[in-house]
Amino acid sequence: MVVQPREPLSETALRTAIRSKTGFWQRIGVVNVTNSTQDDLLREAASGAPAPRVLLTELQLAGRGRRGRTWTAPARSSLMMSLLVRPKAAPEHWSLLTPLTALALAETLEGVGLSPAVKWPNDVLLDGRKTAGILAAADGGAAVIGMGVNVSTTREELPLPEATSLAVAGADPLDRNALASEFLTRFASLYTAWESDPASVLGPVRQRSATLGREVRVELPGGEALVGTAVDLTGDGGLVVASEGERRTVTAAETVHLRPA
């Protein structure tokens, strides 16, 4: 696979493109390298920084995934960013921020001819393989959503065999500035609707779900595992699993798909 030239993100271009579409974002920043955009914005949130704001980076040295995993990618090969928001919605609805972000990304990728699916609780898949991960953290009245998307990453550069990238999935050479501006515009629209009606994201997420209708093994905190069929999402984004004649709702877990859809 030939590696296409990896052009830098442009803070100026991003601001111009995004602000021509939405006035949602108060601050749009790009840095060349950082340990973690999520940690950076959590510190800003703790100091009372206004929201909404977004921070993107070309290289992240200590990006985090679920269960303490790391997210690494060659410089300029991915979209790595975190979003700081101060939701007006009640805290019990904040768990929907992860599927909301996944939905905004899925809509963005559909716009460039790809067919993404959302895997519960926090991944976006292409051809059944993970191309993006999302991790949300709360700090008082703020939430910071971290996201990493493999864009031009080659097969050899991917960290795991079950991962993929937009390029590996067959996308034409993509402009990360255009992808980022489109994603942030879609996020702003979905977020605004969610603040007024938290359930507004559930229907579109269900439609794009790679998990509903599948046999799954849900690995719960503490080592317990639940095997059954994923049948629905609850109003706060929990996964309903039917197992041995009973239905059980899980809200924080790792999900493994056991059979093809």
Automatic annotation (TrEMBL):
Residues 17-195 form the BPL/LPL catalytic domain. Keywords: Biotin, Ligase. It comes from the Bacteria. Pfam families: BPL_C, BPL_LplA_LipB. The keyword Ligase applies. Its EC number is 6.3.4.15. The keyword Ligase applies. InterPro entries: aa-tRNA-synth_II/BPL/LPL, Biotin_CoA_COase_ligase, BPL_C, BPL_LPL_catalytic. GO terms for molecular function: biotin--[biotin carboxyl-carrier protein] ligase activity. PANTHER family: BIOTIN PROTEIN LIGASE, BIOTIN--PROTEIN LIGASE. This is biotin--[biotin carboxyl-carrier protein] ligase. It comes from Salininema proteolyticum.
